[in-house]
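Input record (Table S2, row 461):
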Amino acid sequence: MSKTKTMYVCTSCGLEHPKWAGKCNGCGEWNTLEEFTVAPAAPKNFSAASSVMSARGVPPKATPINQIDLVNEHRYNTGIGELNRVLGGGIVKGSVVLLSGDPGIGKSTILLQVSGNMANQHNVLYVTGEESANQLKLRAKRLGVNNDKLLVLSETDVLSVCDNISASKPDIVIIDSIQTMNLEGVNSSSGSITQVRECTSMLLRVAKTLDIPIIIVGHINKGGDIAGPKVMEHIVDTVLYFEGDRINSYRILRAIKNRFGSTNEIGVFEMLENGLTQVENPSAMLLSGRISGVSGSSVCCVMEGSRPIFAEVQGLVTTTGFGTPRRMATGFDYNRMNLLLAVLEKRCGMFFSNLDTYLNVVGGLKLDETAADLAVIFALVSGLKDTPLPDDVVFFGEVGLSGEIRSVPRAVLRVLEAERLGFKRVVLPKSCFKQLMSANIPDGIELIYVRTVSEAIDLIF
Ligand code: TYD
Ligand code: MG
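Output record (magnesium ion complex):
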């Protein structure tokens, strides 16, 4: 008979080690290995497996894929359009969603708002392990949530929670948070890797057996990863991540993993005194404070899922006070900014080597798409020349190391949205011409096709 085995699992990255060590081999973190007991392994060889099979009776039969009936999953409306969009059209029955983010970002707030909305039609169970029922009531008062179908359970014992779920059979369950949950018999404290892993699996079983969706709040550690084992991300169906900084009132909700939808969609929210409100037109919000006639400001267009988002990119270029120039990028990859500066130096003869260069994307947005390159280049050049760009121009295009401007997908959608937002000119890659040739582009917008960075700079300045 196989025995139980002891493993050591890193709480930061989830890598398993056969022996204890001070430093994790996977992520290099110190003091993160925790003891974990593994259940007996399944039989390895065929003969052993076949003896088990005969003991269990008839083996299960696989079905040809064309004979599987497609059942459309049932989705609940959360009452918040931006959240529904990120989930892929609402929360799927029986699915487990992990909501994660920095402390104070608004996880409990959004979930209480969702609970309030859903309790108009459905039975909701809100399990709070973090705050007392009284604290929750205070928050609910502030958010205007008051409904007899919203039940609050202040409990940290996961077995009691599961008992309550199977007895009361609510339509949706919220667990706030998994780090406060505790399974009796597991020999470690709440929030530890073993507890988090076991409690998540337990809740998952309940969700799947009773076909009840569960939203679980999970904390993140210093490095920004979800605290507890990486395995938690593998177990659940959907992982949502709330980002933004606490100083800025805007919050972006992103799906990192979604078994029931795309992971490209984002939801934009603003934290106000009465909770989180949806920002339906993020581009208008991101461009709202823009001052005209100031150098070092350009507008980019990036795709966030199926939506084109417009944001202001700012570049500030000043003389270096010390020997080494200072370079800083907020909302844009630092190394990519350096790469673009090198392209400007080498291909366009613009030197930044004795200048401090600061790049900033307004509104806390992070530009991951390379289509933002051209706007970054123009913000920097406008900052260097101290010459403002025209207000009505939008830029998009990827910049290559030879100074060429390369094609980006979805050019038609970007141009149409630019026109809708009132822009008059779009500077875009020549290679996007094919995409736009057959499209029905309104007359009010001028398309300026460019092949290289230097050609674009000559055309605009
Ligand atoms: P919270 O939802 O408790 O964050 P988390 O659960 O992610 O830790 O959010 C708390 C912050 O939100 C707190 O700093 C106060 C602020 N807040 C508002 O600005 N308006 C509101 O209506 C509420 C409920 C909270
Ligand atoms: Mg909270």
